[in-house]
Amino acid sequence: MKIYIDENFPIQLANGLHILEKPNNENVEVISIREEFGKGAKDEDWIPKVGRNCGIVITQDYNIHRTQHLYQLLKENGCRIFFFKPPSKKNRIYVLGDGRIHDKKVERSKGTFKKIHGTLCL
Fold this sequence. Notes:
Strand content: 25-35%
CATH class: Alpha Beta
Order of helices and strands: EHEHHEHEEEE
CATH architecture: 3-Layer(aba) Sandwich
Distance between the termini: 14 Å
Number of domains: 1
Structural class: alpha/beta
Oligomer: single chain
């Protein structure tokens, strides 16, 4: 399984998660979209390739699903995406799985995530 970290996150995040995951021997590869497809790669170019690899994308680009042709491309290619909204007073996780968008409220307790309300669907 491949997990793709969008270019709106630092490359070091993908590299660090890959290093942490490697000892588990679960055949999970964490890679940066920027490193895999190049800096500034168009969504229309990488979405089909991620879908062919049965990949999962982690991004802060919540607006990607608001653009009709990109949303359709995500659905057609079976891309699974976790949307992390940039920090605010009310932190939320948005998940696209099986063509559905979910809004999950995350409570914070002293700087750490305490509890996620609801179920994440993939």
